[in-house]
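Lecture notes, unit on protein representations.

Consider one protein chain, 363 amino acids long.
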Amino acid sequence: MSNTRKFTAVVVGLGLITLPVLSACGSSSESGSGGSGDSKTVTLVSHDSWAVSKGVLADFEKQSGYTVKVLKDGDAGQAVNKAILTKDNPQGDVFFGVDNTLLSRALDNGLFQPYEAKGSDFVLPEYRVDQDKHRVTPVDTGDICVNYDKAYFTEHKLDPPQSFDDLTEPAYKNLLVTENAATSSPGLGFLLGTAAKYGDGWQDYWKKLTANGVKVVDGWEQAYYEEFSGSSSGRKAGGDRPLVVSYASSPPAEVVFADPKPKTAPTGVATGTCFRQIEYAGLLSNARNTEGGKALLDFLLTKEFQDDMPLNMFVYPVREAAQVPEEFVKYGPQAKDPQTMDPAEIAANRDQWVKSWTSLVLK
């Protein structure tokens, strides 16, 4: 998943201003290159959305004796591609942020070496993959879904859409903005959701969606913070699209970061449009500090980290009995029946689907 779903923000007046995610403690760093230069420093390479509470990371550093260095490399696709290109001389020891839409690319290119993290037995069964080789460790999950602006639909006395089919209806013409499937993690997830839903008919579906005025922008940040009328920043920017491809956890973020906090979330989720993402971490091949990397992977599955993660990265934990924040339960529950796709099917079709989608939608 890219940084574009994680709402790292501060409140200024009624608007949200996105900020870069800073390292979680003073001993961590986002700069520099190359893997860990000494046995007491472990380097985590990630997309821009890595975040953890200072105290939680400090506990790991104290207990393990390792200092964590964080190197952020852009959105998920960019970070994965760079990690593959540098795999013979990796920038760090652990990579966090490859999701199920890109997993096969990482595995096929030998990005990770095997390691079964301590705590793997506590990972919910539906999130486990690669069980014979243990090259990746599941860390979090989330649902890519269409979000809607409640105020718009109330004002226009129109029921918000709830399914993929609804989005092609004339009532929703020129209302949806989505991200480029070739450049954006949520954009790709939305494409995969339609392929899972319609099979070989996904192109016909996108023809209907295009005819119904779907707008495509490069990435989530532009779609959500500029085009979407339901977000605080979108309203301030004059966004005029009341439907956006985002995440099921977006409504809770609108509440958490608002000042004053509203009694209800200003946005909702079209639950019939969701695609389930799972995010993984792995020990990089040729890592300089393999023991530190293993300790860091163990840490990502501890209950302390899994409990801390949701309100830092706006994702759901994968560990059994991990705490889910009240805001998630109330405003952003996981989809009950999201679209899913086997990583092998994604691997076999992703590149051709993106190529066909680009030709069809961006012509």
